[in-house]
Design brief:
The structure is a single chain. This protein is of the alpha+beta class. The chain folds into 2 domains: 270 residues, Rossmann fold, CATH 3.40.50.150; 130 residues, no CATH class. The protein has 14 helices and 19 strands. The strands form 6 sheets. It has a 7-stranded mixed sheet, with helices on both faces. A 4-stranded antiparallel sheet has the order 12-15-14-13, with no helix packed on it. A hairpin with a 2-residue loop joins β8 and β9. α2 runs parallel beside α10, α5 packs parallel to α7 and α11 packs antiparallel against α12. The longest helix is centred in the C-terminal third of the chain and has 22 residues. The protein is elongated, with a radius of gyration of 26 Å. The N terminus and C terminus are likely disordered.
Length: 457
């Protein structure tokens, strides 16, 4: 295996091993049958973590697929098997699609405790499975459907934060709990998983969702979502308690019969109730107009929110690519200077990461960074400067007036994904508003390298 793959491909395969799970074709067929009964015949379909294409293989002819797969080798296999599909070898956190642009989301999302950096769709730092569901439901058109297999902890976790985000955007039509050995043949795992079916609501519409926010004790130390307390018929087996490593209690669902047949029957019941409630597949175009991009996404790998200068104007990376950014004329000179500092600092960090020696290029970039910083501070003052304003309130303990910090707008630079790297260029004393240069202006700075790495992961 190591002889067939490059170092980068081996690393990507290693990273995806712990949370990659493959789907039994019988389960994929049951999902397609259910969404078909709900009304899906054709449309744009998204699958995050598509693997080599088990869901694609069972898809109806009218499905126009966008598949996302972190492992480039597996993505290449899926693309070779299904050349008409749009297979993207990337992290789903980096996938850019317009909000409310997808008709259907399907798949078996990767699950684990890892949290991916995604300022747009994972501000709550949710585990990877919940992140994928939250992003998926926001990419759906109102009236579109999401039918995905996920960890049982999406529903059972005691912290309901992720469930609240899901419920805020869509209605849970139903859930089916699969037995512990459901994925043993396809993925070699005995984890308990759930198939969740959501319908995206129109923004501002009233919820018609099955209640699924709370979880209640099923046994000592094990919580089960309220949905399954109401619908035990949607648990495909007997829920019992076992012991995990370390002796902690663990939920086990003992298989009782043919899982594929039972899944199909449970989904038919969920579909029947949804149709009776008028919650069929009826994707609607979003009410807002997408801005026309000035640069296509495929031409840039910069993260969401990345600011740039385009001639005399500015752009920001959005869903469709780089779109025009309106910046007040009085703030344009400072934003332009901050972007120059950002680009020089990032280039210097990249150059230092590429070698252990100080090269003429590194010396040149460090001199450029000093020049830009000196020019900025002479014109605008410290990067981290601020002023105070009165709030009209009094501190009850001291009797003094409460003050609020007011930071300069700086053309919106604070929202740039690399802004923290620039703010870390100086050591700033809030007491006397004095700034001094950070170590990077004179020598390598490990702490700043760590900060920069967090921005780009």
């Amino acid at each position: 295996m190591q002889q067939l793959l490059s170092r980068e491909e081996l690393e990507a395969a290693r990273l995806s091993t712990l949370n990659a799970h493959y789907t039994d074709p019988a389960y994929a067929s049951a999902v397609w049958d259910a969404v078909g009964r709900l009304g899906f015949q054709e449309g744009r379909v998204l699958e995050a973590g598509c693997g080599s294409g088990n869901f694609l293989g069972a898809a109806p002819a009218g499905a126009r697929f966008v598949g996302v797969e972190l492992d480039p080798t597996t993505a290449a296999i899926a693309q070779a098997r299904y050349p008409d599909a749009d297979i993207r070898a990337e992290s789903f956190a980096e996938t850019r699609l317009p909000e409310q642009s997808v008709d259907l989301v399907v798949g078996n999302v990767p699950f684990g405790r890892v949290a991916l950096h995604d300022k747009r769709h994972n501000a709550g730092r949710h585990s990877i499975h919940n992140h994928f569901l939250i992003k998926g439901i926001h990419l759906l058109k109102p009236g579109g459907l999401m039918a995905v297999i996920t960890s049982r902890y999406t529903l059972d976790a005691q912290n309901p934060a992720a469930r609240r985000e899901l419920e805020a955007a869509g209605d849970l039509l139903g859930a089916v709990r699969l037995p512990s050995g459901a994925h043993r043949g396809a993925a070699g795992t005995d984890v308990v998983t759930d198939l969740l079916v959501f319908r995206r609501r129109q923004d501002g519409a009233s919820s018609r969702s099955e209640a699924f926010e709370r979880s209640a004790q099923h046994g000592a130390g094990v919580a089960v979502n309220e949905y399954f307390h109401r619908h035990p018929e949607h648990v495909l087996g007997e829920m019992t308690l076992g012991k995990a490593e370390g002796g902690r209690p663990e939920l086990i669902v003992r298989e009782q019969g043919d899982v594929g047949e039972q899944l199909g029957a449970a989904l038919k019941q969920i579909v029947s109730h949804a149709l009776q409630a008028g919650q069929r597949f009826e994707p609607q175009a979003p009410e807002f107009d997408q801005q026309t991009p000035v640069a296509q996404v495929g031409q840039s790998k910069q993260p969401y929110g990345y600011l740039a200068v385009e001639g005399d104007d500015f752009t920001v990376v959005a869903d469709l690519g780089a779109v025009p950014l309106s910046v007040p004329r009085t703030q344009r000179p400072e934003l332009r200077a901050l972007l120059g500092l950002r680009d020089t600092a990032v280039a210097l960090l990249e150059a230092e990461a590429g070698t252990n020696d100080d090269t003429p290029k590194i010396d040149q970039l460090r001199a450029e960074l000093n020049r830009r910083y000196d020019g900025y501070t002479s014109q605008f003052g410290p990067i981290n400067r601020f002023s105070y304003r009165r709030t009209g309130r009094t501190d009850p303990k001291t009797g003094e007036a409460k003050l609020a910090k007011v930071r300069p707008r700086q053309g919106g630079f604070r929202k740039d994904p690399f802004a923290n790297v620039v703010y870390a260029l100086e050591h700033f004393s809030e007491s006397d508003q004095v700034a001094r240069k950070a170590t990077i202006f004179e020598e390598r700075a490990g702490a700043l390298v760590c900060l920069w790495t967090k921005q780009v992961r």
